[in-house]
Specification:
By secondary structure, the protein is mostly helical. The protein folds into 2 domains: about 220 residues, Alpha-lytic protease prodomain-like (Up-down Bundle), CATH 1.20.1510; about 80 residues, Cation efflux protein, cytoplasmic domain (Alpha-Beta Plaits), CATH 3.30.70. About 65% of the residues lie in helices and about 10% in strands. The protein is built from 10 helices and 3 strands. A 3-stranded mixed β-sheet has the order 1-2-3. Strand 1 and strand 2 form a beta hairpin. Helix 1 runs antiparallel to helix 5 and helix 2 packs antiparallel against helix 6. The two termini are about 35 Å apart. Keywords: Membrane, Transmembrane, Transmembrane helix, Transport.
Length: about 300
């Protein structure tokens, strides 16, 4: 657990460092060239740094040690539900990124209405796009490969770099197209390329944080996990039920961040059937082992009842 958390924290710190490098390059270059798409890209990355710092703080809460000692549990601020911090942080990040995209969209539309913006140094703009594309691709690939088994916090960070990568490629396209149009009879269209690129970029890229936001809100609302997870849960429980000749069961589940919360109620119809406490704990252990394949932290609660009302 400790090495996994250290690795996750290291990946997030790497993302912050690369984000600082990216933002400094972007803001400097954007101000010099007075390019809307470069400045938008740099501001997006700058705010993403602050969000990444918030992510590390959230990681500290989510992965803090738990105690089964009664006094220790009574003192902790998160007796239950600390894993909700993870989808909460991802939701905040997504909302902020969506807001940036909306601002960029409105600003770009305003620029189009007022006549666009002139890009005087196409070569410098293309060079910026090439440099930042390399930075973004390397960061994205590193986080994607090194963090492929990491939870949602790192996955969201990786997606953020994917958006930056596509932005940088769009910058290259924007400056190249603007330069080519300036050499033709369609030169009057050249000033509109930069703000039009921002419009297209924001409309397309808002989908990524949008999908992540929907996913996180579902977790915060404790909605059921996807059908694939539910099917695996039922398969594991059904096997234990049949093996111990239990009559039926009711299962409730939800995924919150890196934790899978499952509540199972086994219904035993025969009022004369009795179990030792050790037998019940043995069934609980078997259920737990069968659910380990998910690779997530389990919050498992199993009850046994004859009255379906308590299920």
């Amino acid at each position: 657990m400790g090495s996994s958390v250290s690795k996750e924290r290291g990946l997030l710190k790497f993302s912050i460092f690369m984000g600082v490098v990216y933002s400094v390059i972007g803001i400097t270059w954007g101000l010099i060239l007075q390019s809307g798409i470069i400045l938008f890209d740099a501001i997006y990355s700058g705010i993403a740094i602050l969000l990444s710092i918030m992510t590390i703080y959230a990681l500290g809460i989510v992965t803090s040690d738990e105690s089964f000692d009664t006094a220790g549990i009574a003192k902790t601020k998160f007796q239950m539900g600390k894993t909700s911090v993870e989808p909460l942080v991802i939701s905040i990040k997504s909302i902020v990124i969506i807001s940036i995209c909306l601002y960029g969209f409105v600003d770009a539309v305003s620029s189009l209405i007022s006549g666009g913006s002139t890009q005087d140094n196409a070569f410098a703009g293309i060079l910026y796009g090439v440099i930042t594309s390399i930075v973004c691709i390397c960061s994205w690939l590193y986080l994607k490969v090194a963090g492929k088994d990491s939870p949602d916090l790192v996955q969201a960070e990786s997606e953020q770099w994917l958006v930056d990568t596509l932005f940088s490629v769009l910058v290259i396209f924007s400056f190249a197209l603007s330069y080519m149009l300036a050499q033709t009879s369609f030169s009057y269209m050249s000033p509109y390329i930069d703000p039009l690129s921002v419009v297209l970029a924001t409309v397309y890229f808002v989908q990524i944080p949008g999908k992540r936001l929907i996913h996180s809100v579902k977790e915060l609302l404790l909605m059921a996990p996807n059908e694939q997870i539910q099917a695996k849960i039922n398969e594991a429980i059904l096997q234990v039920k049949d093996e111990h000749q239990l009559d039926s069961y009711i299962v409730r589940s939800t995924k919150t961040g890196r934790q899978l919360n499952i509540e199972i109620a086994f219904v035993i119809v025969d009022p004369k059937r009795t179990f030792e406490v050790g037998d019940l704990d043995k069934i609980r252990s078997e259920v737990e082992r069968s659910l380990q394949s998910f690779g997530m932290s389990l919050w498992l609660n199993i009850i046994f009842t004859q009255d379906r009302h308590w299920a």
